[in-house]
Design a protein that fits this description.
Keywords: Heme, Iron, Membrane, Metal-binding, Transmembrane, Transmembrane helix. Helix content is 48%, strand content 10%. The chain is of the alpha+beta class and 472 residues long. It is globular, with a radius of gyration of 27 Å. The structure holds protoporphyrin IX containing FE. Protoporphyrin IX containing FE (HEM) is lined by residues 132-134, 146, 243, 268-269, 272-273, 276-277, 280, 336-337, 341, 407-409, 413, 415-417, 420-421.
């Protein structure tokens, strides 16, 4: 609404027409915005950090690139242009060097502790209770929950769980054989492996959890559950070899996890565990098809190391040298979690990150996608060259900063499933190349270049024809 202010006579008797109130408000808002923007690029404590002035003035360009799904690509370009430390928004700094990993995600601030996640970056779970996963948790709550799941991810547990994993890999290969010769969308196929795996676990856990929640009615409720599901839950409680079992034993005990924490963590296992490994395997398949030399070399290593799929297991996989190099190169170029896991510098504290003094309340992160795509860290960064990861890499790659590649994060909040995921991806890849020749089904557009990112890569179909290998 525009309010007209009456004309008022001056001493000289002339009438001065004052501005409509609405216009005054708009003008003041514009002036204030301009003043804030100018402050942010001149006097603001982060003003000396390099970057595009518009990004330092307002978060709008950041939001724009996020909405159109191109944010990681844009941030990588900004790092390439402005260096390993850049200002990404008025109150945010992005890093891509090795030291920053330690300074942000591992080091403790004296008198405060670890840098924390920002609660407003995440929509909390509907239940209001968080488990392991992206949502912020106080250190003591996080370490209690994580402690309950840590046993399930130990080396020993992984060996016990391996038969389950191998069973799912061989079922996956069998299903692919039944569909060989026709174009398959490998992105979808890779998602099936882990989904099948985790749902098996989660069903047992959920049944048991729900009924225990209503103790002393548990026996009655269990009798209402269909026999097939009851047997699954029963088998689940007897087994020691899955990722939920150890936490389930301590359900609702002091220092154990609550039912809701268990469920929320299972959600992270399902989403975090399936989407990530499937994304990596999809990207890797694309890179292999684009680089026939690498595909041929890797296929040769797999087929000279194993003569049947039954031989492929965690004891033999470490004998391969090219396979882990290929996986590392794919994680460098196509990290399944390509964003920046922000932390906040606590109020009243300055911290040193990569030699820079960063003021209180600043958001800081290492940008995972940019670490692998910038020439500050790698020679020929956009090329898929697994040889750079070998124990004795070619001379031109000796200065590559391999330790900046941390797709699973570092520190106490790093991925709990790292070793599990790496084993799973190696088993799948080795089995696939042992059994099939991969043929690209031609596409007109560039699969990789068109992918949008909003948290995860949203993957377009990656059509591949699998030709079974003829065995003598
Ligand atoms: C290539 C595969 C994977 C990648 C790249 C990956 C990456 C990550 C990253 C970057 C984080 C930190 C997220 C944050 O700080 O918000 C994380 C956390 C987590 N990941 Fe993974 N992940 C992978 C596979 C898996 C698998 C297979 C599982 C389950 C079996 C899993 C379970 C989790 C859980 C539960 C957390 C939260 C840990 C905590 O809060 O302490 N991830 N992952």
């Amino acid at each position: 609404m525009t309010v007209m202010v009456e004309s008022s006579p001056t001493k000289a008797g002339q009438a001065v027409t004052t501005l409509p109130l609405g216009l005054l408000v708009v003008l003041s808002a514009i002036l204030l915005t301009l003043a804030v923007a100018i402050y942010r690029i001149t006097l603001h404590p982060l003003a000396s950090f390099p970057g595009l002035p518009l990004w330092a003035m307002t978060r709008l360009p950041y939001a724009y690139y996020f909405v159109i799904g191109r944010l990681p690509y844009k941030i990588a370009k900004l790092h390439e242009e402005y260096g390993p430390t850049i200002r990404l928004a008025p109150g945010e700094i992005s890093f891509i060097d090795e030291e920053a990993w330690h300074d942000i995600y591992v080091k403790k601030v004296p008198g405060f502790g670890q840098l924390q996640k920002n609660p407003t970056d995440w929509i909390p779970p509907q239940s209001g209770v968080s488990g392991l996963g992206p949502y912020p948790l106080a250190d003591h709550v996080h370490s209690r929950i994580r402690g309950n799941f840590a046993v399930a991810f130990s080396e020993r547990s992984r060996r016990e769980q391996e038969p389950i994993l191998l069973k799912h890999v061989s079922e996956f290969i069998l299903a692919l054989k039944e569909n060989s010769g026709i174009p398959l969308d490998m992105c979808k196929w890779y998602n099936f492996i882990w989904i099948g795996n985790v749902f098996g676990y989660a069903t047992g856990a959920a049944i048991l959890g729900v009924t225990q929640n209503f103790w002393p009615l548990t026996p009655l409720l269990m009798s209402l559950v269909p026999k097939k599901m009851r047997d699954a839950a029963e088998k689940h409680t007897r087994s020691t070899e899955d990722i939920v079992q150890p936490a389930l034993k301590n359900l609702s005990q002091t220092d154990g996890v609550s039912y809701q924490e268990l469920l929320e963590t299972c959600v992270s296992f399902i989403i975090g565990g399936s989407e990530t490994t499937a994304t990596l395997l999809s990207g890797l398949t694309y890179y292999l098809l684009e680089n026939p030399r690498v595909l041929a070399k890797l296929t040769h290593e797999v087929r000279t190391s194993f003569s049947s799929q039954e031989e492929i297991n965690s004891a033999k996989i470490p004998n391969l040298t090219y396979l882990p190099a290929v996986l590392s190169e794919a994680l460098r170029l196509f990290p399944p979690v390509p964003g920046h896991m922000r932390r906040v510098v606590p109020s009243g504290h300055h911290v040193t990150i990569s030699g820079h003094t960063v003021p209180p309340d600043t958001r800081v992160a290492v940008d995972i996608y940019s670490t692998g795509h910038c020439s500050h860290n790698f020679f020929k960064p956009e090329e898929f060259i697994p040889e750079r990861w070998l124990a004795d890499p070619p001379a031109e790659f000796r200065n590559d900063k391999r330790k900046v590649i941390q797709p699973f994060l570092v520190g106490p909040r790093a991925c709990i499933g790292k070793a599990f995921a790496q084993l799973e991806m190696k088993l799948v890849l080795a089995s696939l190349l042992l059994e099939f020749d991969l043929e690209r089904v031609e596409r007109k557009d560039d699969w990789l270049g068109g992918l949008k990112v909003r948290g995860f890569f949203s993957k377009d179909p990656l059509m591949v024809r699998l030709v079974p290998v003829k065995k003598e």
